[in-house]
Amino acid sequence: MVNWTRRRFLQASAIAGGAMLLPGVMHSAWAAGSDKPELETVRVGFIPLTDCAPLVIAALKGFDKKYGITIVPTKEASWAAVRDKLVAGELDAAHILYGLLYGLELGIAGKPQPMANLMTLNHNGQAITLSNDLLDKGVRDLDGLKKLIQQQAPGTYSFAHTFPTGTHAMWLYYWLASAGINPFDDVRTVVVPPPQMVMNMRIGNMVGFCVGEPWNARAINDRIGFTAATSQSIWPEHPEKILGTRRDWVEKNPHTARALVSAVMEAARWIDASPENKRETALILSRRAWLNTKEQYLTGRMLGEYDNGIGQRWQDAHPIRFFNDGAVSYPWHSDGMWFLTQFRRWGLLKTEPDYAGIAQRINQTAVWQDAATAVGGIGTPSSPMRSSTLMDGTVWNGTDPEGYASRFAIHRQGA
């Protein structure tokens, strides 16, 4: 048992420094009787992106069978399709954008639905790509982009993200605004499904996009764009995709929910265990059934080896992570609350929401805890809040969310 002094230190550390984990407590295996999953088969939707990896590996490596279920991954064409099938019950759960799930709960990404975030699937691993047309105009970074935009009429240039309340929209808006570019007044934004990003840039429908991998690496390979920023340069160790479902599904199938999270969590641990496992994962994902692309587009960035396409190479300090001793998968309340602050900033929420209450009812920390116990060897965070410092020096730790939302000089009129 952790003594009181040490417990207070760990709790303070989790809030001030983020993500300190207490040692996990091993328990006996779950019984096959009263704890048996209610469902034998679980249909899980995914979009062909690198960060669907834990779901794919859980199904292919048999981690699902270990917990008494069979995961059936189903490839979807767009985030809107994932949303519609999840709400309609055609999918039991899905690889889904963090902000999409929260938008659904609040009725700003579709008809209001009680949703559940079972776990975070990954941190980091997205990017903003700018076109070579901009490069030809002398744009190599955000400052160059700002100068060019200031020389043109508002809305001259178009940028794409993947869903109005999604993570990519929030990364793109935050990045542009950090340089004084208003993403609603100074440029146009459009929604494009991830697999269609490269094609749309090729034919000139936009000069920039924010999306997950491998589509940023693909743009470089096809010589139509370069990486101007990674999402982890905007927010190191940011939450990205989550394992989402409907709250009534969790209530009806609590043991299935635990088994699903356990299988995916164990798969995530396997992926992050070694570079060899990551290379094998990249090879698997490249196949037709999954991403249907070349392995070379996946492997480098999965290993944190970056080339921006215009001469800069680096080993990223915050590569895509799927496990990180369990800290990735934990559904931190403060992560969900951050998206709510950005919804407020950009006028998607007209009144102050119950930040903490919404995060508490969506993020299923109790399910995560049961799954972590079943998997074993995973520590439990001492607080559902963590602290992060973003690219502009702002610190987010879940305290005073409304004050945080209103502190930004650039916001959408009426927010």
From TrEMBL:
It is found in: Endomembrane system. Keywords: Cell inner membrane, Cell membrane, Membrane, Signal, Transport. Pfam families: NMT1_2 (PF13379). InterPro entries: NrtA/CpmA_ABC-bd_dom, TAT_signal, TAT_signal_bac_arc. Residues 1-31 form the signal peptide. SUPFAM superfamilies: Periplasmic binding protein-like II. Belongs to the CmpA/NrtA family. PANTHER family: ALIPHATIC SULFONATES-BINDING PROTEIN-RELATED, NITRATE_NITRITE BINDING PROTEIN NRTA. This is CmpA/NrtA family ABC transporter substrate-binding protein. It comes from Lelliottia amnigena (Enterobacter amnigenus).
